[in-house]
């Protein structure tokens, strides 16, 4: 049996903890997954996985060799790229990003890249948490933060600026907002990952922090966007997500002279070592695309 495929199957089962889930992800039958795992164990002469009727988990030996197997797979991808004398980019790139940035900005961006490179496949993992890239077999993560994870290599590809917005129906049904302190008297929509709902705003050299009342919270920006569109209150939203609604009049910017703090949009990866030419090309492409494409 193909040892490289067997290694990919083993690395995937280590993530999913399920032969059935790996079979679905790799588009093969469950018996074939079992055969590849048995072949890996036979070649290495060790038991890699504990199997029960409910779950699959790594043995101590399996944990010990998992990173070596992953490194071997990365090296195999690199060698494949170097051996590609046609100069065409190929292979699969796994990208992790937030739902809001994924559907509003990333999907339109990668369509052009994929059109230019028909042998490249891209798998997008939508998640708002910071993933363990190696553990999840993610090649690149796009994250919005004031500073990148120090354990990862990061490159800033764009600036994420935000605005305060609300629907016209909400604004006409409540008191006028003329200064930051007025926000404390309004319904606000908050990110539930924050223990305290304090909005930090700046106007030129002036800064002000306001404790706001958030009766509705969510862990994802698009949920709060649609709450604002439905008149639920005020929301801080990234301009990459709400500019279209401001232009259409479905949302209005509140306190336009006062801005939330900007953050950077980073493309993150775990190591430059064994990076495939396709991944390198995609990083360069995204950097150029977002530098030249306004929201």
Automatic annotation (TrEMBL):
Pfam families: HTH_1, LysR_substrate. Residues 1-59 form the HTH lysR-type domain. It comes from the Bacteria. InterPro entries: LysR-type_TF_proteobact-type (IPR058163), LysR_HTH_N (IPR000847), LysR_subst-bd (IPR005119), WH-like_DNA-bd_sf (IPR036388), WH_DNA-bd_sf (IPR036390). Keywords: DNA-binding, Transcription, Transcription regulation. Belongs to the LysR transcriptional regulatory family. PANTHER family: HTH-TYPE TRANSCRIPTIONAL REGULATOR, TRANSCRIPTIONAL REGULATORY PROTEIN. This is HTH lysR-type domain-containing protein. It comes from Pseudoalteromonas piscicida.
């Amino acid at each position: 049996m193909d040892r490289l495929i067997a290694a990919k199957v083993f690395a995937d089962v280590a993530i999913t903890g399920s032969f059935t889930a790996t079979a679905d992800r790799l588009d093969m039958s469950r018996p074939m997954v079992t055969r590849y795992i048995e072949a890996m164990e036979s070649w290495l002469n060790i038991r890699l996985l504990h199997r029960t009727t409910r779950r699959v988990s790594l043995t101590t030996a399996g944990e010990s060799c998992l990173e070596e197997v992953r490194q071997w797979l990365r090296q195999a991808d690199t060698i494949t790229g170097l051996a590609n004398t046609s100069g065409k980019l190929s292979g699969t790139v796994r990208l992790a990003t937030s739902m809001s940035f994924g559907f509003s900005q990333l999907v339109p961006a990668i369509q052009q890249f994929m059109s230019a490179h028909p042998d490249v496949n891209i798998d997008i993992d939508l998640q708002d948490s910071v993933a363990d890239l190696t553990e999840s077999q993610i090649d690149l993560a796009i994250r919005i933060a004031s500073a990148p994870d120090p354990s990862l290599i990061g490159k800033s590809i764009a600036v994420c600026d935000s605005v305060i917005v609300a629907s016209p129906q909400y604004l006409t049904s409540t008191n006028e907002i003329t200064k930051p302190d007025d926000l404390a008297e309004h319904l606000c929509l908050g990110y539930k990952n924050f223990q305290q709902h304090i909005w930090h705003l700046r106007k030129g050299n002036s800064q002000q922090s306001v404790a706001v009342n958030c009766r509705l919270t969510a862990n994802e920006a698009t949920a709060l966007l649609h709450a604002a569109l439905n008149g639920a209150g005020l929301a801080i939203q990234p301009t990459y997500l709400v500019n279209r609604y401001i232009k259409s009049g479905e949302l209005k910017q509140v306190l336009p002279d006062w801005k939330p703090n900007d953050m950077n949009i980073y493309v993150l990866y775990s190591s430059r070592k064994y990076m495939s030419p396709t991944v390198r090309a995609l990083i360069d492409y995204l950097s150029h695309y977002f530098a030249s494409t306004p929201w």
